[in-house]
Amino acid sequence: MNTSKITRKNFLKVTGGTSALMFLPGFFLNSCENDATPNREADPSFIPDIEFELTAHPSEVSILPGAKTKVWKYSGKIINGRKDALQTLDDNYLGPIFRVKTGEKIRVRFKSELDEITIVHWHGLHVPEEMDGHPKYVIEQGEEYVYEFEVKDRAGTYWFHPHPHELTGPQVYSGLAGLFIVNDTEEQKLNLPSGKDEIPIVIQDRTFDSDNQLVYINSPMDRMTGFLGDQIVVNGKSNFSLNLDTKAYRLRLLNGSNSRIYKLAWNDGTPFTVIGTDGGLLEKPVEKEYLTFGPAERFDIIADFSNKEPGDEIKLVSLPFPSTISGMGGMMGRGMMGGNNNASVEMGSRLNLLSLNIKNRVDRKFNLASRLSTLEKLNPQDAVNFNNPRKFVFGMGGHMRWTINNRTFEMNEVADYEKVKLDTSEIWEFVNGGGRGMMGGMMQMPHPVHIHGLQFRIIERISDGGFDETFDSFKDGFVDEGWKDSFLLLPGTRVKVLLRFEDFTGMYLYHCHNLEHEDMGMMRNYMITK
Ligand code: C2O
Ligand code: CU
Ligand code: CU
């Protein structure tokens, strides 16, 4: 059974904490809302195809050259079923990669050895409420939570990470995250590069002290803007590089950073060939000069190096873009907020993410199908609220807190406007706007919006002006053609999405996936009822 105790972990350096608490009264102090939701046990009538064990535990891994780094990580094993359903990574903080097929029934016995509450959320998956990792289901050290569900999603790149309220940012930062890859028969027919030619790329940023240990949160400003690390870590390693041959690869990209946005490009100017987004394959490949990559988003791309030469080096970079933070930046620079923000690499800096070294010439031509999948036709008129979309304003509320419609997270509360009906389609309009608070309208930032429990379609992005420079520097990098569970809501813009509530009733989350914003309460429940 849960109690409400939260212990601070002692290895992750959190500086400026005291001033942050003074600055945001009540920020870390009101986590006592989850009393005694019973931990879930296995249901003997559920017959899994594959049974996994997944444990969150402290560990030490190599990220930088030299001393190992203390981390928290997920380790897993197969208890029963297909042995190739889990791919473990050695000496890495990233969790094992789940590789499951649509239609498979899985049981995951999740155990925690952390001295802090936690729970696992399967990001992007369409699962019953009890399997979604709502923070009310947190477990404590030594406890177990058993997930049992059928994988209903299309082939795609999903992921999993912790979701305890007010602690998601530091827990993901400590290392807790992993990929959940789904395959299906439709995808199989495309003969996409597979095996060693299918490469997951998890992009994160971290800051280390001189002993190679993780440092989180430099200043109260880090909480307001979101934490930015000063080093890029790809697949759990700094200075990540790969040796490849002159052929085509499938890269599955995840932005697993707490708050950093990337503007992805190949350094030689080759356009990207995008075949999939958060919720799986697109109808047909899309070419992009660059990709706007917000936290939690995924891109599935084909990178064909068949016209490269052995010895060539290609870099995946993040192109520079103008500061995305307006208001606060000018009014009170980061220094004035009490931070000693000496090391951080600003949002929008040009970055090298990874290097690909072409080694051998091989003669293997790859032809990408011109038609990848058939997507359900978009019919916004089918929405029950077509003429009057629900509106969600992401902005700064009172007391300098990030809010949604001027509200912050309440563990078990759902407002009237957050209740929807099963088996209906709706349009939700997300607005990046001010809010009524003292700072209302004065501070705007991009918010990576995420909705739990389903995949949706983006039907419109509207710029209301005022932030044209930011909008123009990102707009050609959106891939809105497919299924999404997360999207970047830029300052001065509105985004309309079409959702359908199917199969499951219950309470799910929607929130900002800037994890510091989420922990600050920029998260709400919505309820699906019959
Ligand atoms: Cu990836 Cu609610 O989160
Ligand atoms: Cu999620
Ligand atoms: Cu946000």
SSE layout:
Layout: E1 13-14, H1 17-23, E2 50-61, E3 69-80, E4 86-87, E5 97-101, E6 105-112, E7 120-123, E8 144-150, E9 156-162, H2 168-173, E10 178-183, H3 185-188, E11 198-208, E12 214-216, H4 220-225, E13 231-234, E14 237-238, E15 241-244, E16 248-255, E17 262-266, E18 272-277, E19 280-288, E20 291-293, E21 298-304, E22 313-318, H5 328-331, E23 351-358, E24 390-396, E25 402-404, E26 419-421, E27 424-432, E28 447-451, E29 456-463, H6 468-474, E30 483-484, E31 486-489, E32 493-501, E33 506-512, H7 515-519, E34 523-529
Parallel strand pairs: 1-12, 2-6, 5-10, 11-16, 15-23, 24-27, 26-34
Antiparallel strand pairs: 2-3, 4-5, 6-8, 7-9, 9-10, 11-12, 11-13, 13-14, 16-21, 17-20, 17-22, 18-19, 18-21, 22-23, 24-25, 27-32, 28-31, 28-33, 29-30, 29-32, 33-34
Bound molecules: CU-O-CU linkage and copper (II) ion (CU) (2 copies).
Report on the structure:
With 530 residues, this protein is mainly β. It folds into 3 domains: 183 residues, Cupredoxins -  blue copper proteins (Immunoglobulin-like), CATH 2.60.40; 166 residues, Cupredoxins -  blue copper proteins (Immunoglobulin-like), CATH 2.60.40; 150 residues, Cupredoxins -  blue copper proteins (Immunoglobulin-like, Sandwich). Helix content is 7%, strand content 39%. The chain has 7 helices and 34 strands. The strands form 6 sheets. Strands 1, 11, 12, 13, 14, 16, 18, 19 and 21 form a 9-stranded mixed beta sheet that branches. The chain has a 6-stranded mixed beta sheet with strand order 25-24-27-32-29-30, with no helix packed on it. The N terminus is likely disordered. The structure holds CU-O-CU linkage and copper (II) ion (CU) (2 copies).
